Amino acid sequence: MPKLRKGGNIDDIHDMILIKSKSDEPEEKIDYKKSEIDKIDKEFTIQRRFDGLKERTIKNDSQRLKVYLNYIYYNLNKTVDTTDNKDYVAFFNHVRHDRKCKDTTVNKYFKLLTVFYRIMKYKNFNDFLVESKERKRFTKHEIRHYDAIDEETLNMILEKLIGMKGSTKIRDATFLRLLWDTGCRVSEVAELTYSACDLKKGVFKLRNTKTKRERTVVCSKETLKLLNYYLQHQGDQGPDEYLFKSAYDGIINKRQLGGKFVGIVNELKREGSVPENKWLVLHSLRHGRAVNLLDKGVPLDVVKEYLGHTSIETTMIYSHSTERKNKMLDKISKIL
């Protein structure tokens, strides 16, 4: 029998000799609910990505979905296929009152769950969906849309912009001019590459659109002249290079430009040049172009195609816009 090594501990040898039961060892606790939540979120994300949604939209939806899943799994001790009407009521009360979400955010949760239960083929949300539509639970609050911008206000913004310090003011001003002429979504202009542009005629093919349908837009001679002036001072102009680049040669930072735009609008409000109740953002240029085209007599169906709307109802929103109503009232007052 081997002797105990000098300095050894008899208790250590004892522990090594005896057979231990696995139950005696501390086990790492597995959070099965979290695993299930992550699995569901992953499956839903795969479906949304396959549908062609933008990554930012997928990320936002994933964050909201996890709020819902965490609530039903941990607070209600339910699963996605065992929830019922009272559970949905409890969740939306939680979102509205405990999380202090605004009505617009609550509506986003409702739309998300509608899509989620449809895509994942669970039927237990259907009754709540029908009942909510009948009782107008998520439509009674008016959703305020961005205001349309006009040429006069846009020119004031451009004046402020080119008077600022910084190396990107020409780029930013050119971006706004092109955004105004084309009536594009911000992402559509931001993602323009040289291969998609006829820089002699001022014709642009939009390939990465919200509706996944390619469309063509144009710009004025003045905007084209400005665009070519700006591009003369740019570096690499390969077919896959963006027209509007960041300082690091990547795609232009839309959020940064949007913040600069809103900052100028707020400055004009303080000066009294823009009404305080005007809600102007970069997307207001698209609204403004729609109203402008309709005011000039361009047929509704043509405006629909130019802006890339999927339905004529969306375009009709602009035909009944506050800006057009105000102009109509001005005309009526003059003939009374």
UniProtKB/TrEMBL annotation:
GO molecular function: DNA binding
GO biological process, one term: DNA recombination
Annotated keywords: DNA integration, DNA recombination, DNA-binding
InterPro entries per the UniProt record, alphabetical: DNA_brk_join_enz (IPR011010), Integrase-like_cat_sf (IPR013762), Integrase_catalytic (IPR002104), Integrase_SAM-like_N (IPR004107), Tyrosine_recombinase_XerCD (IPR050090)
Residue ranges of coiled coil: none
Domain (Tyr recombinase): residue spans on this chain: 144-331
Keyword Lipid metabolism belongs to the record: no
Protein name: Integrase/recombinase XerD
Organism: Methanococcus maripaludis (Methanococcus deltae)
